Structures
1.
Amino acid sequence: MISVGIIGGTGYTGKKLIQYCSSHPFVDDYKIYSGKSAGENLYDYFPGLVGLINNTKINSVNDLSYEHDLYFIALPHGESLNYVPSLIANGKYVIDLGGDYRLDVDKLYEQSYKYSHTSPDLLKTKIYGLADYPEINYEDFKLVANPGCYPTAVLLSLLPLVENLSEKILTVSCIAYSGTSGAGKKATTELMLSEMDGNVKAYKVNGHQHEPEILQQLAKKGFNSSFSFTTHLLPVATGIYLTTSVHLTEAIHSEEVNEIYNDVYKNSSFIRLRNTPPELKWVVDTNFCDINVTVKDKVIIITTAIDNLIKGASGQAVQNMNKIFGWDETLGILNKEIKDAAVY
């Protein structure tokens, strides 16, 4: 049994973390830490949780205790830097859901997020926690950088191909769509219902902060081809939908590509390989990543859907916690483990 601290527990991802921790069989207790919400009752902040979990007081992050075994940090970019070094120095496990420790080089972080990195040494000692990719070894790591929501969808879609066919990949184009919750709870004009209802728009074209994170991880598998990544906002609250076009130097059979994906994800509890392109509603409120792959001559089209707040944030974070302690990765996330892994 462990004790958990949730720093930034009053945002969208923080709420999900609270729900997962409250139902986790090996989380003995947890405390919620916040800034502006300190001193409030959890029920006052999240009335929808009444009757689902026990009420508790929200603690001030200024009084952060080192009594917990593991800490989730769900804060805006730049703020995790204030807490991670001291937690690591005190021997604690940390899973950071923000972007402060995902990149390997501090200069790249500064270019992407416009903050100076105050603990660049930790960038070299963290693990990038793409939980569904089978090769990750969690031993001897205290700091897990939880991947971003877009990178989670892109990397789970592309890594099997890159790892097996990198020399044949000519170009990759990723067209991604996200619900507005990906921007957090801060009120802005462009995210108002009157602005987004019935609307779709591209944003941060050729300049999204997640693109360096994606390319960093792809490069580790030998990717050096032309790459484009274009993000859009959807008039929905939750979800990410991704269409990836991969152009090859030579034609390939669909059986070979399907065999690659089946082999890579054969033991995954949260990857569902689909016979048809997935729909967003299939994955919302779940920790699943649904992937469909189609092949025509020299072109591979991959369609992918995830919940940005769960698979792209809190669900994957809990999955990473389970892996740190050697538990079944579905604990606290699924009510029961489903054994049927057939493509459907």
Note: The longest helix spans residues 149-165.
2.
Amino acid sequence: MVKFFFCAALLECGVVSGWAQSLPSLQSSSSGQNLPSAPSAPAGTPSTLQLPPAPQNRTCDLSSLMVCVKHVAEDEKGIVLSPLHAPAYDLLWIVPFGAATGVAIHYDTEAIRDLGIHTSRENKFNKLSDYAGLYGPFAAAGVGYAAGHVKQDDYLKETAVLSAEAMADAGILDEGMKYALDREYPMAHNAKGGFWPGGPKSWPNNPSMPSEHAMNVWAFAHVVAGQYDGIATQALVYGVAGTVSVSRVLARQHFPSDVLVGSAFGWLIGGYVLHHRSVENGRLVDVSAVETPLGRGFEVRVSLSRGD
């Protein structure tokens, strides 16, 4: 058992590969020291030491898209099951959030009707939220990845990859919640905003909750603001996220409660990805199951550069 853990640790750190490569040079050293010869191996034993290959790199990258898919799947599982493992003190914000959502739902119809119908205004804010809430964040992730690759800036590349992962997680969860809640859009039935209005027979009814734009941009904003935590960067990304959230209501595309739920879940998703995937700003100690050439085991990662 001791040998197993020792070998697994060497494999994980990538030390075994370099050690194996150095064996021939040690045997042919010209330092003048006579190294003792190795004992002869029994008959039928290979003459060279065969070490299992080191585990492959598990970093999400364009060259390893299946790793990205695996990360997103693991994130979704962790996000969905996180309430089961949440500590008791998380209830301090879950309860107020639930109450605020209930109040918002109660006044949703009144708020949308008070806005009135202004086609020109709605078109402008709809375009604004499309560009700032969807096209812009995805374009920023792509440009950031390309710039990081050209400049050989691994931190910028990591930020771009993590923001894209967070937005993928947000999009998947958004669709699942939409079809589960099946809430009417503000444009339908005089903005009544009913849940499952036609029952199972008419499902889905172009569902509205939560807001995809809000969830997407807040997930992106949290990752970027966590990686680059300067005041200017945080003000920019969170300012854009807040603008998108308000724009979805002014465009009459969502009720205020749709935007509230989307923004909150997007922010939480961004934080989940940041804390579980970021090398510099993630958890100090992270434990996960891994597959190694010696079988299934556990990997313990300690981030010594967190916050640098």
Note: Confidence is low (pLDDT under 50) at residues 1-41, 44-57, 303-308.
3.
Amino acid sequence: MPSNQPTSSPQPALTPQKFSDLRYGMIVHYGLYSLLGRGEWALNRERINLEEYRSLTAQFTAKNFDADVLCRLAVSAGMRYLVFTTMHIDGFRLYNTVHSPFTSMHAACHRDLTAEVIAAARRHGLYIGLYHSLTNLMDQPDGADALENPAAYRTFIARTHQRLEELVRCYTPIDILWYDGWWPFNDRGWQAQTMNALVRSIQPHLIVNGRNGLPGDFSTPEGHLSAPRPWRPWEACMTLNNSWGYHQGDHEWKTPGQVVDMLATVAADHGNLLLNVGPRGDGSIPQPTIEVLETVGQWLERCGECIFHTDRFTYGLRERGDHRGDWHHHGPMTARGNSLYLLLRRWPGREMALGGLQSRVLKATLLGIPDSAKAGPLQVVQTPDRLAIRGLPDNPPDPVCTVLALECDHPPVLNLTGGMRVPRVPHPPYDPCPSDLAHS
């Protein structure tokens, strides 16, 4: 079995509770599929011949793949952790292994990219997670064989556990083991309890996600920003355009403001945003990715207090429960301690009004805005049911998202409902019937 020099972690062990405070991370999708430029599922979606696909290893030079560049980008973006795809569903390993020649070590690059990323993450102070697909389309027998034949199943499962054991033995310590690709089995089929016990017998501190059929230490909603109910540690897994692996035809990049919206949404429900980077086949990072992430990172330097270490500030459509937040037509809101933050994605003009705040505002400020860009001191005008902040500039002073910070006399509570006053009898906040509305 290959050995990798252990790299000590500069951070304390990552518990599920500490994970919930990280708030922002990067997931990197890179592999043979990146050479094709048609997304990470090309082998499956296009039914490419396995030998034809295997021949791509001769072109996999990874000449512009630089783990330090990736990690520096994550840090400059304000991210706290990085998850790297050691093997996607195609079965191509980006690490050194004794179990298969279908690996970056036997490709044109002859490099252990996983070891490079782990070492770079440690140098840059990032927590590190290793993504690994349970399903493997290249090795035989595959998942379809395992469904049909008991002997094939035993071989398939044994090899899956063997890969995971090798991974956590060779690359230690890591912080997160990120399962994916759980077709075609549930937790019993994957022998998930045994799987989790195996990896934790080697690295007891590991936290694992819930994609082997068991709940794991945290949930991973993908393509949406909805926290699990009841709440548990979670991260929203999102693309920066519409693809995970590099797709040469996908130019629908999210704006920095849209990334801020996502960060505010997860922050309000004490979750994380895991945002994707898909390098090109040569390992280089598309320029729009760099520009968006660096712009958001600069914004976080100015306004990060409204994103990091926030409290839950959520609302429910049908039941009040323990929710103490609400929504606003100018943009999302977050809270921390006695502070309420309004992320004014749609600029209100010289006055911003807010109803339903059950706290007294002591002070209002614009985060990260120099005095020269302000119209003057902000004026707070508050009645029992309405707050007005006057003296805002005519135009938003922050090019990404201006944040209005309100210092309150106690932790802020917001309660509006769908009426012009809050009824004095039990009532639904908005919807007396089950709702078809998507909300966050």
Note: The radius of gyration is 24 Å.
